[in-house]
């Protein structure tokens, strides 16, 4: 199980990756809704509003790279512009650049219309992208005890977070309901995906 979220921790931006089952996501969202309401209306800028349907071969298989692009666009909009430059070179950074980023991440994650991003490919692509563009500013936390075995199988090498320069990687135990609630209540923008 791999899910990802974003947040700030002691001045260091964290990108948390993990996938949870739908029921855990619903429980975490229910806890968040009961314990903390939004202080003001929430607005999502256009550069963050994209769908896998916007990609040339877009299918549900592209949700991993699209979600990664949305998270990176959000960070670009909140102080880290290097994470979403003007990729289509039209003079403006907008949702078309987020779509282009999703396409680039899809290639890096080896996504195809019939096959989504496997967790090791997603982590590898995201760690490289963020580490190269904003060195030493992010921590990638992987909440998945089975991830090292998946990584070995998927990439053919042992998992070692130190092979990714410019980004700290921490392996954490599988998240609990309380862990999700803590993330959500801290306003860290946890993104929950439905996976096997």
Core attributes:
disordered N terminus; globular; four-stranded mixed sheet; alpha/beta; 4 strands; 196 residues
Number of H/I helices = 6
Radius of gyration equals 16 Å
Strand content: 5-15%
Low-confidence stretches: 1-35
- In the residues, how many domains can be counted? 1
Helix content: 25-40%
Mean pLDDT: 76
Order of helices and strands: EEHHHHEHEH
Total strand count, please?
4
Written account of the structure:
The longest helix has 15 residues, at 63-77. The chain is of the alpha/beta class and 196 residues long. Helix 1 packs across helix 6 and helix 2 crosses helix 3. The radius of gyration is 16 Å and the shape is globular. It has one domain. The chain contains six helices and four strands.
Write a brief caption for the model.
By secondary structure, the chain is an alpha/beta fold. It has helices at residues 22-35, 63-77, 95-108, 119-133, 147-155, 177-185; strands at residues 3-9, 12-18, 138-143, 167-172.
